[in-house]
Write a structure and sequence with these properties.
Blueprint lengths: L2 E9 L2 E6 L4 E6 L5 H12 L18 E8 L4 E7 L3 E7 L3 E4 H11 L4 E3 H6 L2 H11 L6 H8 L10 H36 L6 H54 L4 H104 L7 E4 L2 E4 L9 H15 L5 E5 L6 H13 L4 E7 L12 E5 L1 H4 L1
Helix pairs in contact: 4-9, 5-8, 6-8, 7-8, 9-10
Length: about 475
Amino acid sequence: MRIHKIILDHIGHVEHEEIAPADVTIFEGPNGCGKSLHLKALRAALATPKRGHDYTELLSDEAPNGYIALSLNAGLNIRRDINSIESKLSIKSKALGEQRGSDANRYVTNTFDAESINCESFLTKDKKERQRLILEAIPFEMDRIGLRSIVGNDFDKLQGHPLEILDHVHKTFYDRRAEINRSAKERRQMAQGLADTIQSEVDLKQVDSDISRLESELQDLQQARNEKIESAEIKASREITTASKEHADTITSLRNEAQEKINLINEGLTRLVANLDKIFQETKDSNRSLIEQMRSEADAEFLDKSTGINLAIQGARSQRDIEIATEAQRKIIREGLRSAAEMEAQSTELSETLTALDFFKSNMLKELPIPGITMQDGEIIIDGKAWDKVPDSRLVTLAIDLAIARSQESSILIADKAEAIDNNQFENIIIPHLLHSGRQCFIGRANVGSHTHPIVELKIRTLSREQVA
């Protein structure tokens, strides 16, 4: 649908005006010259007002009524009549006949979706609102089957814009890979650090054999000690027994010999018995001392020989304990390296998944109605750059593309406040973009011209694709 003629009657400071628009129609001039008024009038004819809005503010101050009339192709005429109380829309064509009121409003709503973009306002919107407008402008279906083939069913229930879903999935896998890489690195470093501290490997079987041999030597030494003490005790016991028998026999003999002289030598016998008792006691004491001496010598010999054996046993046991602990460390090292290798394999799989996601996303972005848009870490990225790194001219072309994408059913685009772009960018970037947009564009832009060619009132400039070509 294309507008061939615009008529304004008693709209703003315009008493009556007829405009023949082209592919791009630019309303420019100083502030207050009527640029925005013309665009508002155009929107009033192409849109149904919001509740409570009747466009009466468009009337001239002294005029009781006025109208905006559009002539379009296919013989369609649209007219909005405005008085001080209300405004009414009517349409007329050969195919439709004449329709007024709600029928006319319904037809305009279904036929046109002329999205008005305030370029300056769009450039200064907060991040959340800006992102919402961009995502709303590029609706398309997510290839969930294709995504499922890459990442499984974990994200089937995710809702939102496909770019948001893909960004969330990508971030999830990226964060998961980063965490796995961190854990794998820590485990490798731990295993390497532990490996640097352990001794060389020891033959535990040989250590156990040495311990058994030394313990056997200790038992033999203990048995030799016990046998020596036992032999000494037997020898001493025999000597005591012999002495005791000789003592008893001598006493008996003396008593027999002295029986006849008992009365005469009783005193001498008593002294002899006492002397013999003393000698017997000394013999007993001597043998006890001998036993104690032999016991002490045996104990000293045992202590001397067993000390070295015990020290050797302790050393062997300590070596065995160290080797057991070292083997436990080796097991920890092997387990750490195995776990790190498994994590690194998982990381490789995640990297492959991320590569597949990037390829999937790249293919999906080819179908976007607005090229150069993607999402990263929850932020809209334009041509690979963050919002604050993108030139204003690119942002304005984005705003225009948004309007086109949001109004797929309409061939008319209305944009105001284009003075946010300098003259060079507007003429060499924005206008060619508008001419190639496939829409009939109406642009408002504050412009005072130059010192040599000043603009003091509204100027309407029209450009066609044929003229530019």
